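Journal club prep — side note

Before the paper discussion, L.F. wants everyone to see what a predicted structure for a comparable chain looks like in token form. Sequence:
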Amino acid sequence: MVQACISRDGQTITVATSRGSVAELSRVDRPEEVFGELALDLTPPVFFFNRLKARVEREGEATKLMEELVDLLDREGFTVVNGVNAYGSMSQKDLKKFYEKYGFVEVAEDTMIRRPKEQL
């Protein structure tokens, strides 16, 4: 089971599985101060991808988290900036490919952005 929630103050997004895997994002109120020129092309609200931690690797936990997360991002119209940093058994190249499957696009070295898909 996967659950996603936005904090009451709208500053945090958390997606978690019943097995303890989690994705966390934080709202960036002044993206131009954090991301510089990159922020000129960002449509608010903007969130920063803090972490994606699958408790069990290679069993689909990260996929479940990302599917629920992108659904929420699209539904709410949120833009996400992700500083990609490989850890565990996944290489930097493979991690970028993983995020690309969910609509992230590399805009600078090790920085990816995902914009919400248009709602019909």
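L.F.'s comment for the group: DSSP finds three helices and seven strands in the chain. Keep this in mind when we get to the figures.
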